[in-house]
Design a protein that fits this description.
two-stranded antiparallel sheet, mainly alpha, binds zinc ion, single chain
Length: 128
């Protein structure tokens, strides 16, 4: 059996098909589940190694290891940097402000309808 140095914790371990020792492998497996869930719950977040490590309070090297080992290939588009990302961000902000406008526009007539109704009710008899 070949001995390898774990790329994460530098421990010597017996190679069993991975580049990390069993302890790190298990930690990465658990972290991957967290990252995947986090990305699923925050689909609009501009996720990168740094923001993921901050959000999940995980070691940035562990997140990077997940990326390097291809765990997050399907979940994370790390290559989309620069202009494209800025445009996406702008589009997201635009969408968000649209949604805010929509929700306040939806709430406004509802509020006035209620007060109008209350006014009608309380004024009933006095003005008519
Ligand atoms: Zn290790």
């Amino acid at each position: 059996m070949a001995l390898l140095t774990c790329r994460l914790c530098r421990k010597i371990f017996t190679a069993a098909g991975g580049r990390t020792c069993p302890a790190c492998k298990q930690r990465l497996d658990e972290l991957y589940v967290k990252v995947r869930d986090f990305l699923r719950d925050n689909p609009k977040l501009e996720a990168n190694v740094e923001s993921l490590s901050t959000s999940l309070e995980a070691d940035i090297r562990d997140i990077q290891a997940l990326v390097d080992m291809g765990y997050l290939d399907r979940d994370l588009k790390l290559d989309s940097a620069g202009e494209e990302t800025d445009r996406q961000k702008l589009a997201l902000e635009f969408e968000r402000s649209l949604n805010e406008m929509k929700s306040s526009a939806a709430a406004a007539p509802q509020r006035s309808a209620v007060s109008y109704g209350q006014q009608l009710y309380s004024d009933k008899g006095r003005r008519r």
